[in-house]
Amino acid sequence: MCVRSLREALRLLKPGGRFFSYDPNRHSPSMFLYRHPRSPLVSAAGKTDNEVLLTRAQLTAELVAAGFEQVEVVGLSGISYRFVEGRVARALLPIYNGIYERVMQLPFLEKRFGTFLIATARKPGP
């Protein structure tokens, strides 16, 4: 994300309006392996040009800098996939869906390493 686009979202919301986003977590081992350019398993399939791996701290700071209040960013895991690009990644998919994502749902892991970051915030006002 960038503060400029978040400020535009803030401008478009009515006072008291809510913001929601769903972003890939940089601290997630699976996101790092599948989306980070340094990973041997990286895949560009289905990736948009503006998709970046974010941290909870980064996302929180950008929402605050844009002017939002009541900012909350939490990790989320437990999402399974039917298909992923790449032969090796596809071979590992049953382990990812059946074991990895279930383990990542443990609260002490999900908070930091959850596959995705769910952010909510509020535009100041009534």
In short:
It contains five helices and three strands. The chain has helices at 3-12, 29-35, 56-66, 87-104, 107-113, and strands at residues 18-24, 69-76, 116-122. The chain is elongated, with a radius of gyration of 16 Å.
Shape: elongated
Structural class: alpha+beta
- Helix-strand sequence: HEHHEHHE
Low-pLDDT residue spans: none
Mean pLDDT: 91
Q: Report strand %.
A: 15-25%
Walk me through this protein's architecture.
The protein is of the alpha+beta class. It has one domain (3-122). It is built from five helices and three strands, in the order H-E-H-H-E-H-H-E. The protein has helices spanning 3-12, 29-35, 56-66, 87-104, 107-113, and strands spanning 18-24, 69-76, 116-122. The chain has a three-stranded antiparallel β-sheet. The longest helix is centred in the C-terminal third of the chain and has 18 residues, at 87-104. It is elongated and about 50 Å long. The mean pLDDT is 91.
Q: Any descriptors?
A:
single chain; alpha+beta; three-stranded antiparallel β-sheet
Topology of helices and strands:
Layout: H1 3-12, E1 18-24, H2 29-35, H3 56-66, E2 69-76, H4 87-104, H5 107-113, E3 116-122
Antiparallel strand pairs: 1-3, 2-3
Helix pairs in contact: 1-3
